[in-house]
């Protein structure tokens, strides 16, 4: 299965999590089944699993990594595990080959979470081509931005037919939500640039809480499926997506240009660059660094108006510890993921990043005195 522009736009849904839920439903999972996914993820992933009527089973990331540990996956598989979700965090393919072998040996469908990047490769194969299906997201902060939405891709003809039936049974979003999406997209067009990151972040959060724009986090974790799962992508977002997919290679080239500068030029004693798996070519959705001084660096970046994000700030972002139980995560069950969340900092690689932005980011880190 190759992530072509046609396949990305074939089956589009209201959000990436809605696309994932559709895949799980099309696989005919039952209520007592479980789905293995990594900790150090967005709450949208377990939300989709719960909306499909199944149970999340959290697997740790490998030490000093951002992606699923195949050894911990083997330990945590159970008889009722009926799907595995492999997340290409920040676009890093990780141990996708090893996880694919486990899934094949166990006869468990593998679903790839490609929301952070579309064109990374592992041993010459595109991410999205290792599993039974993959899903994507096109919201603010993703490599391709349509306003709101996600898509599902599969090379299995039977599964594609089921997905089409489920897609066709969904509705277009109501007009009020479509208007909120358009307002959010207008905000993205005006404010989505590194120099305005901290202002845009605060404004988007405030407007989301007021219901003026669509929020990424709807608060339905473990409390029944939200109305999001009733809808396909809005017509205006679909048109924008169809226009944007023609520039996927441009997005990848831009990410590579920026990421190479971060890796080559940031020489800061307080941060560590990511380790990349041999045989991988990474198209970063964001460029990750780690530091034991995460909170201090974030405060200083905010004052300097340099775009540095702290997600994932939790093994199930953005949930805080007392909320973890609502999605089936137990404190201490994935210690590497909890450590990553306490350390990770990410830098932008999107098309609005200019050479001046890169220079400011490099200067900020190389000038740090903590």
- Helix content class: 25-40%
- CATH topology (fold) name: Aspartate Aminotransferase, domain 2
N- to C-terminal distance: 47 Å
Order of strands, widest sheet: 1-10-9-6-5-2-4
Shape: globular
Q: In brief, what are we looking at here?
A:
The chain has helices spanning 5-10, 16-26, 44-51, 70-76, 96-106, 157-169, 175-191, 197-210, 235-244, 248-265, 294-304, 335-343, 355-366, and strands spanning 12-13, 34-38, 41-42, 55-59, 81-87, 110-113, 121-122, 125-126, 133-137, 150-154, 280-281, 286-290, 316-317, 344-348.
What does this structure look like?
The protein has helices spanning about 5-10, 15-25, 45-50, 70-75, 95-105, 155-170, 175-190, 195-210, 235-245, 250-265, 295-305, 335-345, 355-365, and strands spanning about 10-15, 35-40, 40, 55-60, 80-85, 110-115, 120, 125, 135, 150-155, 280, 285-290, 315, 345-350. The protein has about 375 residues and is α/β, with parallel strands linked by helices. It has a single domain, classed as Type I PLP-dependent aspartate aminotransferase-like (Major domain) (Aspartate Aminotransferase, domain 2, 3-Layer(aba) Sandwich). It has a 7-stranded mixed sheet with strand order 1-10-9-6-5-2-4, sandwiched between helices. It has a 3-stranded antiparallel sheet with strand order 8-7-11, with no helix packed on it. It is globular and about 55 Å long.
